[in-house]
Amino acid sequence: MHHxxxxxxxxxxxxxxxxxxxxxxxxxRELGLVKATAQSIRKIHSKLRYALQDYSIxxxxxxxxxxxxxxxxxxxxxxxxxxxxxxxxKEAYINVAKLxxxxxxxxxxxPQLYDDMVLYFQAIAGVADRELVRNLEVLIVMRLLVxxxxxxxxxGFAPLLEGSFTALEQLPVDRLLLVSAINQALxxxxxx
Length: 192
What we know:
By secondary structure, the protein is of the alpha+beta class.
């Protein structure tokens, strides 16, 4: 008998797998990054279809199979991505989700980063200002890189690594300086 893991998951991305199935990349608080299959999700009658939309949070039940995780059930918690969102919000959502999918190690829980990602996605949903969207994107990428050890925590950026996303009106440090540090860390990682 297999153990069923009940966890909230950020749906980072998905792709078709076989006839009617999908391979879904989830970032969970308890299990970290998980790639799981959802059987028959692309069929009209699928109960999982609406719960597992890209860029949303879902309460998922996962079972570890021989080779892959399987999603046995799911219910939507919150949509993080609204297709009607303006273009720069949409771009920020996708950039962060794809970067997290590439950089996060499989099955390594990082609860604080999970919480930060949820706060980021919630904060960006209500932002109409293009510059603030860019600032928030820089902040979450900094937090991602620090959590994974690609940037040291003891840099001059430490005040940016904690606290709320919603309280931020402007970055206390020049964004170009932060972007330069991010690009250097990504270059040094050889992963992107």
